[in-house]
């Protein structure tokens, strides 16, 4: 006989639909990131304000829905078996992401990303399924607000950055610290507990989605699996295309010319002369195979000699009076 506290209630289709929308938005963002990284599009998705806002909105939705899901699954009494099975799946997924990004992006691998955060924050949020509502709300407000008024370089290191409070985050392709995101999870807990205690819960349960809604709900029910699989699939398409189209090379050339033009004009040289100078510089970099030293910052004495010779040659091209000057 199932204890009434552990009786599983019907799923709310609207919540699955929201999860489906969130996972589609996440896939769109990651597609944009991939296209940016492999130079298919000129915008830097990691820093562009519109894309950053888009990413933060998606992350807020994900963390909020984590809190909602905890209440839906364990609001009356924690179903430990189901909780640990799902938790183990999330932890395994987080480990796979860390291992995969360690090999593909060793300087910015994901050591505490979305899945890592979901695993830890789900545990930390469990007690708040049963605390007074005012306490849940108060703790959420403190956790969200504290990083706005406190930071310290101690948290800039990888080993402590997962907590939050950094002044400058260490390099990582995805970093979701406890502060402030545990507060967002608790907001989801608070919101769903309020819904559960009202007549709104019954009205939400009556929602019967149409074809589109059912499709989104299906994606929402499998959102964790989709999260694990979608990025490898996207990279499996975008990366080979970048090799065929040589997008990274053309992107490097565009970056070089843009940076050179800006620096040259800032020194008082006319735009036309700067264009000539920078094109000459680009030809020299390609001729002497200097892309790797330039981008890595590891410039040997021989590389520096080639760069200096190229600079003299290009300077003499726009200022002939410098020709022959050592």
Automatic annotation (TrEMBL):
Keywords tagged on the record: Membrane, Transmembrane, Transmembrane helix
Q: Per the record, a Pfam family?
A: HGSNAT_cat
Start and end residues of each Heparan-alpha-glucosaminide N-acetyltransferase catalytic domain:
11-232
Task: Give the residue spans that cross the bilayer.
Answer: 12-31, 51-72, 84-103, 109-126, 133-155, 175-195, 216-239
Query: What's the protein called, per UniProt?
Result: DUF1624 domain-containing protein
Q: What is the lineage of its organism?
A: Bacteria, Pseudomonadati, Pseudomonadota, Alphaproteobacteria, Hyphomicrobiales
């Amino acid at each position: 006989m199932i204890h009434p506290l552990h009786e599983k209630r019907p799923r709310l289709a609207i919540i699955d639909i929201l999860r489906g929308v969130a996972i589609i938005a996440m896939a769109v963002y990651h597609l944009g990131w991939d296209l940016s990284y492999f130079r298919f599009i000129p915008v830097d998705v990691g820093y562009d304000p519109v894309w950053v806002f888009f990413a933060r909105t998606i992350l807020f939705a994900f963390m909020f829905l984590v809190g909602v899901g905890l209440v839906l699954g364990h609001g009356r009494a924690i179903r430990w078996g189901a909780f640990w099975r799902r938790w183990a799946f999330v932890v395994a997924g987080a480990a796979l992401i860390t291992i995969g990004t360690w090999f593909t992006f060793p300087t910015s691998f994901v050591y505490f990303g979305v899945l890592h955060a979901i695993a830890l924050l789900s545990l930390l949020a469990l007690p708040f399924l049963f605390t007074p509502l005012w306490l849940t709300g108060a703790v959420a407000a403190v956790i969200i607000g504290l990083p706005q008024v406190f930071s310290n370089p101690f948290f800039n290191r990888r080993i402590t950055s997962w907590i939050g409070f950094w002044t400058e985050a260490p390099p990582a392709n995805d970093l979701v610290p406890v502060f402030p995101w545990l507060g967002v999870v608790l907001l989801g807990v608070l919101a769903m507990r309020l819904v559960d205690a009202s007549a709104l819960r019954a009205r939400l349960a009556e929602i019967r989605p149409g074809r589109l809604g059912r499709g989104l709900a299906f994606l929402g029910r499998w959102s964790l699996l989709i999260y694990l699989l979608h990025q490898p699939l996207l990279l499996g398409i975008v990366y080979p295309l970048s090799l065929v189209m040589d997008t990274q090379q053309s992107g490097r050339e565009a970056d070089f010319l843009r940076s050179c033009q800006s620096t040259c004009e800032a020194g008082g040289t006319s735009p036309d002369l700067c264009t000539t100078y920078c094109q000459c510089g680009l030809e020299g970099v390609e001729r002497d195979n200097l892309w790797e030293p330039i981008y890595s910052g590891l410039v040997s004495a021989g590389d520096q000699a080639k760069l200096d010779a190229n600079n003299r040659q290009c300077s003499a091209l726009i200022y002939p009076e410098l020709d022959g000057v050592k």
